[in-house]
Design brief:
15 helices; about 20% strand; alpha/beta; 15 strands
């Protein structure tokens, strides 16, 4: 009988120890090593051996997805960093240069640190985010890493080792008390990092309490994970895979729904038999698998890729969920696709798939006010505009509000757009400013005119 696969990790110090990288020049490997000082790097043997076409490197999409490149930094930044490394500068000097670069990269986009962290009895609840009324995010302290890291990751700051940039639950009782006291929370998303790096008994410590009667208001438990790409054996042959799948089944037995929020960025990630087996095992528990990805230049900025990816997902029993716009953080300028092009890619792919794949929404920006969908481009009263729709909102009343921005073929994020028809600001901006200046739980306040008044 063939032995189950064993997980082996590599970090930036192993760049020259991975034999597959011998197809690259020494110069390119040195550049990857330098870029990995800024962008957290972690790789495993499954990705190296099964997902990357080494005959297509460096253009292979999974290679670009996992290996930092010098082009992800400004030239002057890379040259300063590279010189410091090659000239033998001290570790502290290199760290200072890295810190300067990282500070430019907007480590926590969409006001995550200042507006999303909730309070209980006047104190922050560490390791939670509660941006949308119905949904609370949990960041388990044991799950703040991944089987491999993505170069585009909008949570890259979680992996830098800086405790000031890291979300993590530090006290189980406090996060459970918060959810228990907030009956408006119907969905809990366990995220990271990747919760699937945790052993089944650790994951159970976050899920099992939510199955008790005092949490009847929580109807859906979601798990955000990239493990179906990076280590599908987690659901097949790991020593505690059966325990993990039994835990998933237990959620269904308690009358709740569990959804695995899978992250696929290219169909190349979905072509292994181990992945098919993993999805099959998850679905047998009664859980669903929903799929999402940002639109990424150099990786999937092509309608044919999305068409094939959505079709494969449906054939595997998954539910296409979101095409995101790459967030304004990290190597955003390297990966960003103009919104005008994003609309066209989404529409072209959407028109080529059946209704079962048209559950997908996009392109969607997860911005400070909420999830802003770019519905399309049109001309109204002689003005070419983007049609925008707030499909999820920091203030619930904003949801499903349609608004318009002047067409800009180069814009890649909401802050690069201006309101159409001579308006001086978007409809939400006044209230958003008030939210930034008022205590937390803004969506429970009876009126935003009460800025500065404590709400519970």
């Amino acid at each position: 009988m063939k032995a189950p696969p064993q997980l082996v990790f590599y970090n930036k110090n192993h760049i020259n120890m991975m034999p597959q990288l011998n197809v690259l020049s020494v110069k390119t490997r040195d550049e990857i090593r330098a870029a990995a000082e800024v962008f957290p790097f972690r790789m495993n043997n499954y990705v190296l051996e099964n997902l990357i076409n080494w005959e297509n490197v460096p253009n292979d999409p999974v290679f670009r997805l996992t290996f930092p490149m010098r082009e992800m930094l400004y030239d002057h930044e890379f040259e300063k960093l590279d010189h410091a490394i090659k000239s033998g500068k001290s570790r502290e000097q290199v760290k200072r240069i890295v810190s300067e670069i990282r500070n430019r990269l907007n480590p926590h986009p969409a006001e995550q640190l200042t507006m999303n962290v909730p309070y209980l009895e006047g104190q922050k609840v560490e390791g939670l985010q509660h941006k949308y009324k119905e949904t609370c995010l949990i960041f388990p302290s044991e799950g703040q890493t991944c089987q491999s890291y993505c170069t585009f990751c909008f949570r890259w700051a979680q992996f830098t080792g800086d405790v000031n940039l890291k979300f993590a639950v530090r006290e189980m009782k406090r996060f459970l008390n918060y959810i228990r006291n907030h009956k408006e929370i119907t969905n809990v998303l366990i995220t990271g990092g990747d919760p699937m790096v945790m052993k089944a008994d650790r994951i159970a410590k976050y899920i099992t309490p939510l199955l008790e009667p005092e949490f009847d208001h929580v109807k859906v438990i979601r798990i955000g994970t990239k493990s179906l790409t990076y280590w599908p054996a987690r659901f097949v042959s790991d020593p505690d895979s059966e325990d993990l799948l039994n835990l998933f089944s237990e959620v269904a037995r308690h009358g709740k729904h569990l959804s695995v929020m899978a992250h696929f960025n290219h169909y190349q990630e979905m072509e292994t038999g181990l992945l098919s087996k993993a999805i099959h095992n998850i679905r047998k528990t009664g859980a669903s698998v929903r799929t999402q990805s940002p639109l990424l230049r150099h990786i999937n900025d092509n309608a044919v890729i999305w068409e094939k990816m959505w079709k494969m997902q449906v054939s595997l029993g998954c539910i296409p969920y979101y095409m995101f716009v790459e967030r304004d953080t990290g190597a955003h300028e390297y990966f960003a696709v103009p919104l005008a092009k994003a609309v066209n890619i989404f529409r072209e792919a959407f028109t080529r798939v059946s209704g079962l794949a048209r559950t997908v929404r996009g392109p969607s920006m997860s911005a400070t006010p909420g999830k802003i969908l770019i519905e399309g481009v049109t001309t109204i009263a002689g003005e070419k505009v983007f049609i925008l729709n707030m499909i999820q909102a920091r203030k619930p009343e904003w949801a499903k509000k349609t608004f318009f921005a002047r067409y800009d073929e180069n814009a890649t994020w909401i802050n690069q757009l201006t309101p159409a028809f001579g308006e001086d600001q978007f409809f939400y901006e006044n209230e958003l400013t008030l939210m930034k200046n008022m205590p937390y739980n803004h969506f429970l306040a009876p009126s935003f005119s009460q800025a500065g008044v404590q709400v519970s």
